[in-house]
Amino acid sequence: MWNDNQLLELLNIHHPIIQAGMAGGVTTPALVAAVSNAGGLGTLGAGYMKPETMKESIQGIKDLTKSPFGVNVFVPENPYATEKEIGEANRLLEPFRNELGIKEETKPQVDECLFENQINILIEERVPVCSFTFGIPPKGIIQDLKNEGIVLIGTATTVEEAILNEQYGMDTVVAQGSEAGGHRGTFSNSYNQSMIGTMSLVPQVADQLNIPLIAAGGIMDGRGVRASIVLGADGAQLGTAFVTCKESGAKPQHKEAILHTKETEAVITRSFSGKPARGITNTFVKEMEGHERKLLDYPLQNSLTKGIRKEAAKQNRPEFMSLWSGQSPRLSRSVSAAEIVQSIVAQTKRIKS
Amino acid sequence: MWNDNQLLELLNIHHPIIQAGMAGGVTTPALVAAVSNAGGLGTLGAGYMKPETMKESIQGIKDLTKSPFGVNVFVPENPYATEKEIGEANRLLEPFRNELGIKEETKPQVDECLFENQINILIEERVPVCSFTFGIPPKGIIQDLKNEGIVLIGTATTVEEAILNEQYGMDTVVAQGSEAGGHRGTFSNSYNQSMIGTMSLVPQVADQLNIPLIAAGGIMDGRGVRASIVLGADGAQLGTAFVTCKESGAKPQHKEAILHTKETEAVITRSFSGKPARGITNTFVKEMEGHERKLLDYPLQNSLTKGIRKEAAKQNRPEFMSLWSGQSPRLSRSVSAAEIVQSIVAQTKRIKS
Questions:
Q1: In this predicted complex, what is the ipTM?
Q2: What domain range is B270 assigned to?
Q3: Could you tell me if B217 lies within 8 Å of chain A, comparing CB atoms?
Q4: Are residues A171 and A220 in the same domain?
Q5: What CATH number corresponds to the domain at position A195?
Q6: Do the chains contact at B263 and A217, CB–CB below 8 Å?
Q7: Which of A72, A341, B227, B274 would be a feasible disulfide site paired with A38, CB 3.0-4.6 Å?
């Protein structure tokens, strides 16, 4: 069914189904390995991971699968905030900290060497595939990874960003439509003007690229995967579909929220991290609306809200958690990762078109 | 290729390709008839049309085709604005009127009997198909049209709106994804939370409906039409693809703008009509940004900006015109309507998936 598919050859996988490298503990080694063992590409979401944790996770994955897998990392940014701006952003968060009984105000903490240290681990561990979000890494790093035979996946939210990814040497690129859950990968165009729906983004990107293309955004089942290929992609990346699966490390409240929500509830918010991301609206998102200007830039805001998100999960208060979800939550299911992959493959074969 | 397609049977057409009933003079009788003669469903965009103009256009279409065609009308709203609000909205428009040499301030003019009079014409002329935007008409009107054997198409931007359309007796419904050009058809959910991408909207609606489903939003070619069907729709509605075609009555500046723009330039604005609509950003859209609260509700704002839009077209000033476009302008072509339909049919046959 996937004849002449360059992506399968490039990634050395059986089915053009990629599990997105979601950060925040969703992508357990068990999840990543289950997807890879089922013939797709599992991906460790290492965006915020400390190098030592990342190393452990990679070794955990290797213990569970002999198939290729990927690791996703975030291309870093180094924003600046004045003491006054930090104070204002903290004051906005005060009511939530009080509600949860969190005492201290937080100074944003950013490890400026994180990315380089992560890259070193990827090379040491010779991971098969590395994907990037929030930009394209420096040419030196691209070359180092390529020299090790690591396949590189870029992320684009516009045609221009996709072309840049190809020009800089990415082996394949994910075109992330506006339906996608979690963070927007936008790095070149303005956020507002980069909310391109998957139906529009994929064929327009496909017309411009020479490297294989992976569609993302709103894809949850065989219909979405096959539609992606019809639109000109070589495969599809699914995030939300795997958040609710058995092996996912997502908080139970997060899984439940996705399984019981509607497409209209998955909104874009900058309130958790400073970068636009799609998640299920709740008290935190609503209360922060209208205060956009006082939020710190990513990743400073992310650092400020970390304690709130963690404590909210502990106290079972989903109204203060980041509940990332794409726009197709009605298609979510609580099954094993292997079953998701298998049912997609079976469904794509059945579809009449 | 379109075996067992209920939509083809319902509309009595050969190909599941519907030309959207765009208002503002785009849908000339020549365009509507060309699409219907090619085996799709042409649609007259009669949203703002006076009954007598509408009647003439319908008769013009009948002279050019024996095949079924549709007429699109807007379900009316009756908003109110105080003198003060009208004054403020007019002051916002002053710089544009000055620039174009338009003298008088405008009182918003709304014909409250327009919709009923339009319905009467549809019945008199026994049009084959009628489609609605901005809501569901009263039950009495639905019954009157059905009694005449007129097939009814509703518009939905969320799953909930699609279900309402079925419950109220529509024969089929267009699921309008966020990629779509022109006005959002939203009538039940909030505008912000109804920007659901086509890739997400179509399968989630398909799972809930018993009537045939038409996908819309970002669809421009055979890839989009076939992807729509893979996602669970029975056909696709295309707007922007037909704006640039030879028979379209769109202003030359509008056609040129679509043919030469990028997906990132097609933004949502309320500035022209009071309702959110997607068009190519220009001076007017940018200058009106940040003044959202001072805009009148639809259709009052539409009435206020009419003179500006008209005069701008006359003076060849596209920077003040409404340049409606979906998010796939890179796929637009300047060919005949028949060629668009034929190339879609040919392409859907060629696609490997």
A1: 0.97
A2: 79-110+249-335
A3: yes
A4: yes
A5: 3.20.20.70
A6: no
A7: A341
